[in-house]
Amino acid sequence: MKTSIITGGAGFLGSHLADRLLGEGHRVIAIDNLITGNPRNIEHLSGEAHFDFVEQDVTEEIRIPGSVDHVYHMASPASPIDYLQIPIQTLKVGALGTHNALGLAKLKGAVMLLASTSEVYGDPLVHPQTEDYWGNVNPVGPRGCYDEAKRFAEAIAMAYHRHHGVQTRIVRIFNTYGPRMRLDDGRVVPAFIGQALEGRDLTVFGDGSQTRSFCYVADLIDGIFRLSQSDEVMPVNIGNPDEMTILQFAEQILKRMPCESEIVHKPLPEDDPKVRRPDISRARDLLDWQPEVSFDEGITQTIEFFREDREK
Ligand code: UDP
Question: Would you call 56 helix, strand, or coil by DSSP?
């Protein structure tokens, strides 16, 4: 039986990855300090024989007895609101946490998969974003703590690969949505759904012409799993190339959630990327992966989740 460690295992993506790996017959050890993760995301796994949870900050040394086959380093605050509130932890988990995850993988001879991000491209000057684009990041802006931590994480992963021969994998995750996002994490999907559920106005930042491309969580997790089982060392974008403006996204939410809410405009946050869409040619070629869940299907599931969650 394979053993997989998931840092950030009680988070949005980490918990979905735990479900997938358990389904693949792996033993899973989830590590999380619960700073942005939530025990409710893994509550359903508490009776699972092959699942363990360790409450720990991964910026401290990670000690796991026995053999380990894969280390998935998913731990990090990932919403602009979170990393503005906890910028030091964001930098530390990207830097020290990645160092520790690599150290564990080196010790155990495990494959280490790093959850990187489309934020490494910053406010991109190349569109759609290909993996060979080096990005346009402001290191001293409000997003710098996240973007630069992830860029450092990629650099140290490559150094461990080249210098120590650790089998590293780097996934650049584009905007992902689905059940188990935090309603108050500030990201646009839970923000608009939460506002519509409560009959509040939808807060579109700026004129709403900035674009994002939203990937449903099940597709994202499938891409991550495939990458972890492959031999590909260089970064791979995983995301859905179906691009829309934030204003269009707000209109889509209002269409599906009839309510009194209207669209209001708020100031655009500093350094908010104007466009974002993954070029997924590498994922298609190397992993035979592409998103399967339509926006309509995914957003319906997500709205349903938040509706039920609110009633609990
Ligand atoms: N956004 C918005 N209203 C909100 C929250 C976000 O218009 O209440 C915009 C934000 O300015 C950005 C996009 O939605 O252009 C996506 O923001 P999110 O925080 O989800 O993540 P990002 O892709 O910026 O990391």
Answer: coil
Long-range contacts of 16-22 (CB under 8 A, 24+ apart): 16/178, 16/180, 16/217, 16/218, 16/221, 17/72, 17/74, 17/221, 17/224, 17/225, 18/42, 18/45, 18/51, 19/45, 20/221, 20/222, 20/225, 21/225, 22/48, 22/50, 22/51
> Which domains, ranges and CATH numbers included, belong to the chain?
3-178+215-240+277-292 (3.40.50.720)
Atom 6, ligand 1: which residue's CA is nearest? 188
Output the CA 276–ligand 1 centroid distance in Å.
11
- Going from the Cα of 224 to the center of ligand 1, the distance in angstroms, rounded, reads 23
The protein residue whose alpha carbon is closest to atom 11 in ligand 1 is 205
Return the bridge partners of 251, or none: none
Exactly one of 72, 83, 121, 146 is catalytic; name it.
Answer: 146
Query: Taking the complete model, does pTM exceed 0.70, yes or no?
Result: yes
Whether 133 sits among the annotated catalytic residues: the reply is no
Q: Do 265 and 207 form a contact (C-beta atoms < 8 A)?
A: yes
Q: Quick check: CB of 56 below 6 Å from ligand 1? A: no
The pLDDT profile of the chain, 312 residues, written as one tens digit per residue, is: 999 999 999 999 999 999 999 999 999 999 999 999 999 999 999 999 999 999 999 999 999 999 999 999 999 999 999 988 999 999 999 999 999 999 999 999 999 999 999 999 999 999 999 999 999 999 999 999 999 999 999 999 999 999 999 999 999 999 999 999 999 999 999 999 999 999 999 999 999 999 999 999 999 999 999 999 999 999 999 999 999 999 999 999 999 998 899 999 999 999 999 999 999 999 999 999 999 999 999 999 999 999 998 887
Q: d(Cα 43, Cα 285) in Å, to the nearest integer?
A: 37
Give distance in angstroms: CA of 105 to centre of ligand 1: 34
